[in-house]
Every structure is written in C-alpha cells, then in structure tokens.
Amino acid sequence: GDNAFDTTTMTPSANPPADGSCTYLDWGASQDVWFQWNPSESGMADISLCGSAYDTSMVVYENDCTTQVACNDDSCGALYESILTDFEVSASSTYFIRIGGWNAASGAGNMNLFIEPIDSGCVGATGSCGEPHGGLGCDDGTCCSAVCAFNPLCCIIAWDAQCVQDAVANCGLFFYNCTGTTNDCATYATVVSGDGSVNVNTLAATLDGPGHLGALCASGSDNFFNDVWFKFSAAANGFATVSSCGTISYDNKLAAYDMGVNPAAFDFNTLPDALIGCNDDGVDCLLSDGTTPYASELSFACVAGHSYLVRNGSYADGDTGTGTLLFTLPTPCALPSASGAEGEACGASTNGGCDAATGSVAAGSIAIGGSVSGTYWADADVRDTDWYAFTITEAMDVTWKLYGNAFAAAYIISGDPCTTAVIVAEGTGGCPLTATACLAPGTHYVWAGIEAFDGTPCGGGLVNEYVGELTGTPAVCPLGTDVCDNAGPDSATQSTSQDIAQGGVACAAAGITVENSYARSFAGLTSGEIRCVEIAMSNSGSSVLGSIAVYHDMDGGDPTAVGADLVLYAERTFNFGTSAAGFVTARFDTPICLDGNTHNIVVVFSYAASTDGFCSIQGNALGESGPTYIASAGCGLANFVTMASIGFPDQNWVVNINGDFAACGGGGNPCPTDLNGDGLMDGADLALLLGSWGTAGGDIDGDGLTNGADLAALLGVFGSAC
Q1: Burial group, residue 19, by CB count within 10 angstroms (0-12, 13-18, 19+)
Q2: Where are the alpha helices (DSSP H) in 258-374?
C-alpha cells in the first residue's frame, strides 16, 4: 500500500549505508526516515518511491538495522527516485526500509509496497533455474513459481532436468545443448587466427545459440537459425569487423560474444548475457553485388586478451548455403618516436585544458612539425585529458595524429579552454586516430584522452602510452573566423521571450542537469546552402561535452526523434567550458547543401550530464519567435516535446543560421528518390518511405502524399546511385 513520508525535518541516522550494488547511492549525512515491514506472505516484492519530490536513495535491512540486504538509487522517474523490483521477501522475516537522499537531498514522497506471492518451495531457494540440482525450487522466485504451478514436484521433490526444460520453455531461460564436434556447435568454433576470408557452410547446420531481440540486431526476427561458430583472441584493443557483403549465398545474420580472458572456463549457458553486438542486413551491403540478398556486417570493440565468438546464422529456418566471412581483427599499434615528452607522470593531471581553481589555461605546448609522447588514464569516473597549445601565423590545414593502444579520442580544438572551446575536428581511424581541420591564424589546441571515464587505470603498460604528431600546410580555409552573421548573404534567426532559469529542466537535485537536447525547427528553409549555425547557451558548472547538429525533417511537423523524422546533415562537437556563457558557433568547412529534399531544417543543441552545474540555452528578445523542443532520456523524454507541454514557458533561445539560401540549384531536387540524402537509393530510403506512408514525409512525385506512386518510383531505381 501507500506510505507517505517527508525527510525535510528528519535528522541523519548513525552508520551510513554502503553503496554496495548501488553505484550512485552517495548517502553522505542524509536526513532519513525508517519503516518496519512484516510481510504477510512470502513473495517477490516491489518497493517503490517513484513520484517522490526529490532524488531519493533507499536501503533495506533484514531482521535488524545493520544487516543490509538491498539498496537502490536511480531506477525511476525524472527526479531519480528509487525502486526495488522482484526483491524476495519471507513472511518469517522483518524488514527495515531506510529512505534518504542522494548527496543528502531531502523532501516529501510516498513509498508503495507490492508483493507477488511465490510458491513456498521457492522461498530461500538457491539453485540455478537453468541447472538440475538436488534442492527444491530455484533462485528466481517468479520463474520458480511459474514452473511449480504446473509441475509441483519441482518444489516438493527436487529441481531436476524436466524442471529445467520447463523453465527454459516458460521463463525465457537459455540452456546450452549441443553434442557435435564441428563448428555447428559453439563449443567447437572454428579458430580464426588473423585477417582474411573464412569458409562458411551451413547446409547441415542446426541451432544451438540463443535468440536475441530483433530490434537489438536491426532485424525483423528474434531468431538465429542454422548457426555456425568462429572464435578468435584479440591481440590488441580495437574494433573487429566481420562481413558477408557479396560473399555469402543466403540471408544471413551475425552476432558476437565476449568469452573473457579465460575461454576454457566460459559458461555457454551465459551466451545471452555475453552478447556484445549483432546485425542483420548490414548498413551498406544490402544487395551490394546484385545477387546476394540481405548480407550482413558487424563491427564491435575488442579488449586485448579477450576471446570472442562470432556466430553466423540465417534469418529463416532452413535458409542455408555456403560462402565466406571476411574478418578484420585489431592489431597492436606501433608507436613512433617523438621529438618531445609530455612531462606528466601517469596518474597526474596537470595539462587538462583549464585549471578550475585559478580559471587559467593549463596546457602543454607543441609546434607544427612536432610530436609528443605521453600517458593517459581513466579510472573510477575520472580521466586524464591532455591539451597541447600551438600557434600559427597563417591559415593552415592542420592534422593531428594520435598513436596508441587504448580506446582513445583525438581532437583539434579552437577557443579558450576555460570559456567555450570548440572541437573543430575529431580523430577517425584506428592507428593512428587522425583529425584534420583548416584553421585561421591564432592559438589552437590538440587533445588526447581515453574515451571512457573508467577501465584504463595506470599500470597497463602500452595501453597507457601514446604518441601525437602535429603537421600543417598553408591553405585557404573555406570559412574565416568571422562571426556567423558574416558567413553568407542570408540569415534566419529564432528566439522567444523568457530565459530558462537555474534549476529549470534539470531532473536532478540542486539544479544539476542531466543530458538534454534542445531543438528549433525552421519552417520553409528547404533549399540553399548553410555555412554556419550560432546558438546562445550558458553553463554554470564545470566543462561539459556537447554538440550542434543540423537535421532535415522528413515530415514537416514537430520534430520527433533522431533516426525517425530527423535525418542528420552535419554536426559539430564542443567542450562547453567552465561557467561559459554567450554564443557558440558551428561552422561547416563544406557548406551544407539543401537540395529541397526536406520539409524543415531542425537545429539541435545537445550536451552531456553535468556533475556540478546547470547547462542550458539562453538568449534575448531578438528575431522571430518559435517553439523550443526538448528531449532527455534522463527526464523521461525519449522524443522531442515542446517546453510548454511539460509545464515550462517557451524559452528565450536564440538560434542563428547563415549561408546562401539561393545556392545549390535554388531548391531543385536532382534526386527526389534519395530520401535520406546519402546518394544511394536503397533500403534506408525504403524504410523512410514506408514509415511516412500516408503523410508528406516520403513524397517523391510532388503530390504532397506518400503512397503507391512514390513506392513505384523508388523501386524503379532501387540499388542505383544519384
């Protein structure tokens, strides 16, 4: 039932709880309230604080106030309220529920208790539901009760092989079973030793692997039929690619599984949990050779020393054949010699771009033609970022190459690291990561760092080492460093009438924002050339990463979601500095050419979660008014909605677009069947057309409606290029 509480007048209890499995419990000296609960029956309980007015934290103790048995922090709601689900409780025990707040937050709320009874033979059961054992029941109370409801012997005599079969059939469990000695069984996977083609023959293959959600694999089916298996050990960190594009004779599917560092001890019953990637129909290889339908391609990250299983199956049962798979595996990156050294020991962080304590720039130095050896690391949500300043006296094409064996990132950055630093180029490739940008005279920065905030502590040897090389040649850059207003003959501006305030759309305690995206739609801007976009923003906390992106809207209505009605034209990534405020400009070295194949242009400003402040949009009362849209998974907003629809006044956000709106053919569309603008008429365009059926979103013949005539036009040129 419902149990109201309010911790604003409470005092902190002694003995703060341990985080345990709750990564962000962060109890601190939290004001807390306690409830005692004696369940009337044994079962699987839900203890919910969803709907409370603050960021709660919750801990459960059994039979006393010190034996902690469960905890939760951020599992429901826009304000990070807590909920425990499927928590097994016994009618013979007493439970003490302790409610506090993240980082000592406090407020009012409601605790709701719900219990689903389980069979008495399932209470306290410890054996796996997927393995026969001598005990009664199994360790998943819900599954155990479902099985014992129609096979009571599983909870009266023993959990035997028949109980396991019943669990597999009724609880979605996977229990590996294959007795062959060929790669038809995952246990006898064919070993792949390096790059190259490997023969595939599924003519007599059966099924021994698990199913996976079709949406996860970009597939219309949850099944992998007639599967065969391959295995390799990763010699280095990096990405492996497996492809059947043009090399296999039937509709295949691919999946990859991480076996860890000890493949001999790998439990094949855990294959569903070991999945790290899957694909059906590829991205660029659908009908790539004109004869092979629905070939697949899969790329996934590998960690040095781990072994990986690769599974080749079929979309439909009995659809088998022969061919080859092309494997491209990561290899160690050889670091070249360097002319200089970073001078920072691994574990330190002295050249991180901005010294938050003093507000001054903290960076090393490098010159065009120079190179530097250094170390980087990331551990416990903290990472080392290395910035190097360089100055050029004339416009140059500058290239930053970063050699290393970690999953890293490389950037070229313009602007002050302590205000608004703009990432003008991001490294691509593997060894090395390569970033290139045309830069105006002045001081700029290059950046080296680990991608993630964990997983690469010091002591990893080569994985902590890198070499960066900076080169440049004189150039005439397409766009100068002038303000966005001077970037072209035309401009379009939108703003509204009211500032977003500290603590606005934050969805977290104390005005600390989670990740958000704001959008503006420019109606009627369907043709011409966009050279730059300028937005107004503010950030009251430490630096956060973000981006400005330009999309074309496929249906002309309110923007909904990236990948649905919004298709990307171009994006620029930024580091919004400490306490930054003002205009941020995204310039496009190659102007965006709008060919008329859109209904509106949508500008999206996105930023990552802040740790200590409020990052948002700002502006003034200039320009035309228009609704501001917001999307935020952390706020429970998966798709864009208007600010007004969630109870906030529409915000005063200035967005400037500039370019030559008469350029690029003046609005004619030379290729109306290319709905996503990638130069090809393929499955991606077909998906957009079918998804817009009955609306104007996939209109090809200009009648304002997506229908059979448009489908016929697309199919008539399917597989060709513009």
Answers
A1: middle
A2: 271-274
Nearest to 394 by CA among 436, 444, 445, 440: 440
Question: Do the beta carbons of residue 125 and residue 167 sit within 8 Å?
Answer: no
Taking CA 689 as the corner, what is the angle to CA 687 and CA 695, rounded to the nearest 5 degrees? 135
pLDDT for the residue 523: 74
Structure tokens, 662: 């008469």
Q: What does the mean pLDDT of the chain come to?
A: 81
Query: Which of 83-92, 485-494, 544-553 has the highest average model confidence (pLDDT)?
Result: 83-92
Tokens of 564: 């649905």
If you write DSSP's letter for every residue of 645-684 in order, what string do you get?
A: GGT-PPP---EEEEEETT-GGGG--S-TT-TTSSSB-SHH
Tell me what pLDDT residue 487 has.
57
Residue with tokens 């199919």: 715
DSSP string, 89-102: E-TT--EEEEEEEG
Q: Is the pLDDT of residue 292 over 60?
A: no
Residue with tokens 């560092």: 261
Which residue in 378, 382, 348 sits closest to 457, CA to CA? 378
Contact 495, 654 (CB under 8 A): yes
Q: The tokens 């002694």 sit on which residue?
A: 14
**Beta carbons of 318 and 296 less than 8 angstroms apart:** no
Interacting residues of 300 by C-beta distance below 8 A, sequence separation 6+ = 239, 240, 256, 276, 277, 308
Phi, psi dihedrals of residue 154, rounded to the nearest 5°: -65, -20
Please provide the DSSP assignment of 138-193 as one string: -S-HHHHHHHHHH-GGGGTT-B-HHHHHHHHHHH---------SSTTSGGGPEE--
Q: How far apart are CA 491 and CA 532, in angstroms?
A: 10
Other Cβ atoms less than 10 A from the Cβ of 570: the count is: 16
Q: Any bridge partners for residue 471, and if so which?
A: 399
Give the separation between CA 73 and CA 58, rounded to whole angstroms. Answer: 6
The neighbour count for residue 446, using CB atoms within 10 Å, is: 28
pLDDT digits (tens, 9 = 90+) for 541-568: 666 677 888 888 877 788 888 877 888 8
Which of 198-202, 527-531, 650-654 is most confident?
Answer: 198-202
> Which residues make Cβ contacts (< 8 Å) with residue 407, sequence separation at least 6?
237, 301, 450, 451, 452, 456
Buried-state track 605-618, b at ≥16 Cβ within 10 A, e below 16: bbbbbbeebbbbbb
For the segment 343-361, the average pLDDT, to the nearest whole number, is 86
Alpha carbon distances (Å) from 400 to 83, 372, 474: 47, 11, 15
In sequence order, the 6+-apart residues with CB closer than 8 A to the CB of 432 are 333, 401, 402, 403, 404, 410, 469
Q: Is the pLDDT of residue 175 over 70?
A: yes
The amino acid present at 693, given as its one-letter code, is W
- Asked whether the beta carbons of 334 and 466 are under 8 A apart, the reply is no
Give the pLDDT confidence of 232-285 residue by residue, as tens digits: 999 988 889 999 988 888 889 999 999 999 999 999 989 998 999 999 887 655
Q: Mapping DSSP to helix (H, G, I), strand (E, B) and coil, where does residue 714 land?
A: helix
Model pLDDT, residue 501:
33
